[in-house]
From TrEMBL, chain A:
Basic and acidic residues biased stretches: 677-687, 714-728
Region of interest (Disordered), residue spans: 104-241, 377-433, 470-491, 506-630, 644-732
Keyword RNA-binding: no
UniProt name for this protein: RalBP1-associated Eps domain-containing protein 1 isoform X1
Keywords noted in UniProt: Calcium, Coiled coil, Metal-binding, Phosphoprotein, Repeat
Entries under InterPro entries matching the protein: EF-hand-dom_pair (IPR011992), EF_Hand_1_Ca_BS (IPR018247), EF_hand_dom (IPR002048), EH_dom (IPR000261)
GO cellular component entries: cytosol; plasma membrane
SMART domains named in the record: EH (SM00027)
Organism of origin: Physeter macrocephalus
From TrEMBL, chain B:
Highest rank taxon of the organism: Eukaryota
Name of the protein in question: Trafficking protein particle complex subunit 2-like protein
Endoplasmic reticulum keyword on record: yes
CDD domains: TRAPPC2L
Entry keywords, A to Z: Cytoplasm, Endoplasmic reticulum, ER-Golgi transport, Golgi apparatus, Transport
Gene symbol of the encoding locus: TRAPPC2L
Length: 802, 141
């Protein structure tokens, strides 16, 4: 059959008639039944009718395919116009009026005719010879003939079409999924040059019958594919939309796109010519898309963010709803950004939509990311109704998976089995985990952040404290804990902790540092302290080799002055005995020297002390490692004893005692002094007898009174557990001091003595320094413990709300 | 099976509401509307703790005399509420199933949000979302 040129009106009319005749939507009209009635209604002589039927080939085929039907109608018109019935008359006779069918169908026809005439303007001019009407007819037929498509059940018709019926069922559903979007308003798609269904028909044809020859290419103007193809189009309105993709239609495309629409049109034209897969992207198209992608995102492997894509596609002037749907289809990984493939798919969909194609429900396979390859011959029935080309209709849905290349297989699975996709996403991104994750993070950090630094600063602060104390030796005596306090204030909570913990840690540190052996726990230390002190005291006499820690007497004075004090108080054993705390004080004493009542007094208590001191010293020598105060003991030198004695002194020393004893030990002194201070209270008790004496001794000869006061304050701050240590240390110091009685305190007595005392003081200094460091460590440890406890407390607090 | 699914925005206006097209759809709408109060109540009750600690799934909102129709609630962190009316006559839906349904809803909603063409606050017209809800209304029986 040669192509039939129909006008728009004719097109509509014929399609309507065809659908009318095709009651069972088989796309084929049996020769009998309504067609016959129709022809009879044409009021043509029966022989003419027969002739018509022959000409159109119905008799040959046994039924009326769409093309046959159209030709027949045309012939009817020809006949009614009085023209001779010839095949060529179909096209040659121009301006044929529409075939008139009298009889009952008049109403229809008249209606149709009217509608057609009115719709004629809607019809775009189709260029060239339109392949058999079926394609064209569809377009208009759809809109107007829906109502005319009556479910006529013609048994007769069914028979011949039965072989085709079954396959037919599926395709109609698929195109219907397309859901004719409002075609009329869509963009400038008013014109649908139906220059032949081209590839789009073919899919349907294929889908429908499966038996039809694969050659459904209209563009080539090949003889209409077996009628099945056409028939299939009859009741598939959406299929007409495919036509728009036809190259011819593209020519008439009036869509305006800021983006070079012409090129897209060309591309589409060419693409449709491939008549494989309407959704396939041709090379030119793809190249164009890629170029467009580059304008937005130079990196081809990068993403186009959603906002940029939105802007870009908004230019196409499609409704937002459609763009939204296109986005849903094309953003495959749902990440809010478009990769190159996704972008090409989206672009292609936009172009398709512009051309009047309805958007598919699901992304066509050829548009799936990574599937957009011309080489990708996975043309096997794409999603039903959309692309189904070669695949049989029944196979359309399942054909995807099996036919898909390995790459593609994942996509259809993901795309089709939304449940899988969703379950995966459910598993992976459960909202619960997200929220819990956040909630978990929040509470812990602040506390830990705040808490952790605390211990870290311990050491520097200690050093700082030492320095402070060094500076303060003579300055701030009123603050027994000033050096410590200053630093504590600096460190806020840290300080408090420091002050308190330092004491403990200091103890531990000192213990650690001290040469004493087995110092593991504070309790032990504490216990040891006492012993240590005693041991120290015991050792003191041994260690008296170093000049008796004369300055000890004034533990409060501590560091800087301590040296001097020590020198001056080389004999200040009594001072040492006093508290033993302020070894520094003892050291500091020498410079002060002046009031050496202590020496006088010292001997007294010292005398008493030695025994105690020894015991203390020995003890302290063992304990110091745990007690920073007792670094002296590590040396088992006089210094330890000295320190112990100093400590003791400090403890006892409420007065100035050892302000300057050990400048170096300032750092440790705070700790030690604290401890000492703590021990003060106890040591005083312990060394009640000697203490007072020591105190007096320590205080008077030694450095500034404030120191002991400070020590006391320190002691208050310090951990109570240190008290024992202090007591021990005081004992030690006492012992140390006691050890010093041998050193004549008499000022100016012997230069040698003084020098010796100086030496001793120096040694004491070092010992005390060591003790100090040990104490600092202890303090640090205790601080850490406190920090951890606070953290626990913080963590427990939120639960109080629940 | 879910007979009604509603997505309520933060300002308590519906972004999406759909019910099984049977009889009294208005009844379902009314149920959703009354459920909002309960949802808000639950949110505020839990809101004392950190927002993150609040669980999204609210569960059965309130017991009704009608044992067949149950309302379940779910709130996202952005105060978008999902209310689902479930017909439990056929099968006793377990809590986990309801949770999974809400999770699917949430994921679909997230996908809708990801669409740059969707303005938050607009009605949800996504076909994918529709499809998902439809599947829920049909499947969960």
């Amino acid at each position: 059959m040669e192509g039939l040129t129909l006008s728009d009106a004719e097109q509509k009319y014929y399609s309507d008639l065809f659908s009318y005749c095709d009651s069972e939507s088989t796309k084929k009209v049996a020769a009998h039944g309504r067609v016959l009635e129709l022809f009879r209604a044409a009021q043509l002589p029966s022989d003419v009718v027969h002739q018509i039927m022959e000409l159109c080939g119905a008799t040959r085929l046994g039924y009326f395919g769409r093309s046959q039907f159209y030709i027949a109608l045309k012939l009817v018109a020809v006949a009614q116009s009085g023209f001779p019935l010839r095949v060529e008359s179909i096209n040659t006779v121009k301006d044929l009026p529409l075939p008139r069918f009298v009889a009952s169908k008049n109403d229809q026809e008249s209606r149709h005719a009217a509608s057609y005439s009115s719709d004629s303007e809607n019809q775009g001019s189709y260029s060239g010879v339109i392949p058999p009407p079926p394609g064209r007819g569809q377009v208009k037929k759809v809109s107007t003939s829906h109502d005319t498509v009556q479910p006529r059940t013609s048994a007769d018709q069914q028979e011949p079409v039965s072989p085709v019926v079954s396959p037919q069922q599926s395709p109609p559903t698929s195109p219907h999924t397309w859901r004719k979007h409002s075609r009329h308003p869509s963009g400038g798609n008013s014109e649908r040059p139906l220059a032949g269904p081209g590839p789009f028909w073919s899919p349907f044809g294929e889908a429908q019958s499966g038996s039809s020859s694969g050659d459904a290419v209209w563009s080539g103007h090949s003889p209409p594919p077996p009628q099945e193809n056409w028939v299939s189009f009859a009741d598939t309105p959406p299929t007409s939309t495919l036509l728009t993709m036809h190259p011819a239609s593209v020519q008439d495309q009036t869509t305006v796109r800021t983006v070079a629409s012409a090129t897209t049109a060309n591309e589409i034209r060419r693409q449709s010519s491939s008549y494989d897969d309407p959704w396939k992207i041709t090379d030119e198209q793809r190249q164009y898309y890629v170029n467009q992608f580059k304008t937005i995102q130079p990196d081809l492997n990068g993403f186009i963010p959603g906002s940029a894509a939105k802007e870009f596609f908004t230019k196409s002037k499609l409704p937002i709803l459609e763009l939204s749907h296109i986005w849903e289809l094309s953003d495959f990984d749902k990440d809010g950004a478009l990769t190159l493939d996704e972008f090409c798919a989206a672009f292609h969909l936009v172009v398709a939509r512009k051309n009047g194609y309805d958007l598919p429900e699901k992304l066509p396979e050829s548009l799936m990311p990574k599937l957009i390859d011309l080489e990708d011959s996975a043309d096997v029935g794409d999603q039903p109704g959309e692309v189904g080309y070669s695949g049989s209709p029944a196979e359309a849905p399942p054909s995807k998976s099996p036919s898909m290349p390995s790459l593609n297989q994942t996509w259809p699975e993901l795309n089709q089995s939304s449940e899988q996709w969703e379950t995966f996403s459910e598993r992976s991104s459960s909202s619960q985990t997200l929220t819990q994750f956040d909630s978990n993070i929040a509470p812990a950090d602040p506390d830990t952040a705040i808490v952790h630094p605390v211990p870290i600063r311990m050491t520097p602060s200690k050093i700082h404290m030492q320095e402070m104390e060094l500076k303060r030796t003579g300055s701030d005596h009123t603050n027994p804990t000033s050096p410590l306090l200053v630093k504590t204030s600096d460190l806020s909570e840290e300080n408090k902790i420091n002050s308190s913990v330092k004491f403990a840690s200091g103890n531990t540190v000192a213990d650690g540092y001290s040469s004493s052996d087995s110092f593991t726990s504070d309790p032990e230390q504490i216990g040891n302290n006492v012993t240590r002190q005693r041991s120290h005291s015991g050792m003191s006499p041994d260690n008296t080799a170093p000049p008796p820690p004369p300055p000890r007497p004034q533990p409060s004075h501590s560091r800087s002055s301590s040296l001097d004090m020590n020198r001056t108080f080389s004999v200040t054993t009594d001072l040492c005995v006093h508290t033993g705390q302020q070894q520094a004080g003892v050291v500091a004493q020498p410079p002060a020297v002046p009031p050496r009542p202590q020496p006088s007094q010292a001997p007294g208590p010292v005398v008493h002390r030695p025994v105690d001191a020894d015991g203390l010293i020995t003890h302290t020598s063992t304990s110091p490692q745990q007690i920073p105060e007792q670094p002296n003991f590590a040396d088992f030198s006089q210094f330890e004893v000295f320190a112990a004695s100093n400590v003791n002194e400090e403890q006892d020393d409420e007065a100035e005692k050892h302000p300057e004893v050990l400048p170096v030990e300032k750092a440790s002194d705070p700790a030690s002094s604290l401890r000492v201070a703590k021990t003060d209270s106890k040591i005083e008790e312990k060394t009640a007898a000697s203490a007072p004496a020591n105190v007096s001794k320590g205080t008077t000869p030694l450095a500034p009174p404030p120191k002991p006061v400070r020590r006391r304050l320190k002691s208050e701050d310090e951990l109570r557990p240190e008290v024992d240590e202090h007591t021990q240390k005081t004992g030690v110091l006492a012992a140390v001091l006691a050890s010093q009685p041998s050193i004549p305190r008499s000022v100016g007595k012997d230069k040698k003595a003084i020098q010796a005392s100086i030496r001793r003081n120096k040694e004491t200094n070092t010992v005390l320094a060591r003790l100090n460091s040990e104490l600092q460590q202890q303090l640090k440890d205790v601080l850490e413990e406190r920090i951890s406890l606070e953290v626990q407390l913080e963590q427990l607090r939120p639960f109080s709300h629940l | 099976m879910a007979v009604c699914v509603a997505v309520i925005a933060k300002e308590n206006y519906p972004l999406y509401i759909r019910s099984v097209p049977t009889e009294n759809e208005l009844k379902f709408h009314y149920m959703v509307h009354t459920s909002l109060d309960v949802v808000d109540e639950k949110i505020s009750a839990m809101g004392k703790a950190l927002v993150d600690q609040r669980e999204l799934y609210l569960g059965l909102l309130y017991p009704t005399e009608d044992y067949k129709l149950r309302r379940y609630g779910y709130v996202t962190n952005s105060k978008v509420k999902f209310v689902m009316v479930v017909d439990s006559s056929n099968t006793a839906l377990r809590d986990n199933e309801i949770r999974s349904m809400f999770r699917k809803l949430h994921n679909s909603y997230t996908d809708v949000m990801c669409n740059p063409f969707y303005n938050p606050g607009d009605r949800i017209q996504s076909r994918a979302f529709d499809g998902m809800v439809t599947s829920m209304m049909i499947q969960v029986c």
